[in-house]
Write the structure tokens for this entry.
Amino acid sequence: MTWFPLEDTAQMQDGYRKVFRLAGHHLLLLHHDGRSHLLDNICPHAGYPMDAGKVIDNHLRCPMHGYLFDLDNGNCLEGYEGPCSGVRVYALEERDGQLGVEL
Ligand code: FES
């Protein structure tokens, strides 16, 4: 496992979004309602990037077909073509003022 710093914690304000490609992962870091979330930026439904998706309450809606994912656990809550697997979410960690992840 390797630690990857992603962003200064001071930058994490509501509306923040940034994508990363790290260690073979396509990641989306976002901040909403006072909380930061890191998840795969590839929708498990059909592989579309999710960084342009709309955040509703604590959920991210994929911009392609509108599937809805829980930002805390990645579960797919709503889909139109039957059940969908969830999106992977990652545990964020703060070290010396940096928010990051171990991959
Ligand atoms: S690619 Fe995301 S809902 Fe279809």
